[in-house]
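*Target chain*
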Amino acid sequence: MLTFCVYRFGASMRSVILTADKFEDMELFVPYFRLLDAGAHVDIAAPTRDDISGEHEYSITPDILISDVDPAQYDLLIIPGGFPDGAPAVVRSIPHTQFIARAFMTLNKPVAIDGNLVTSRWPADLAAFTSAMMTLVGA
């Protein structure tokens, strides 16, 4: 399941993607490239700075550690899905991830299309997901 929350969008919008090894490739790369195309700054955050790869072996090097993410510095949070015992389980187990998600909600950086939280069930939902994401961020 892919999830994102948004606070504001603009030329200086900063986004963070929280992930780990064995993420769902399309759920990371489709929003990542769509946001870059719209002019957003996007950081990939992971438990370590080692290269991580998706279920289909596409890899990426994280920009920042999840433990170093300051939610106040970001306007958009994306958490891609993946194997149940892969990226989602690892990311959920990191206490700072829970802090980041709570901070987005507390700082009125909406987390839900139940308000500003948008989720998807699987990669086949990516077209609807990215469309809703870009509508909510005003692009």
User: Anything to note?
Assistant: Residues 39 and 130 are 15 Å apart (CA to CA).
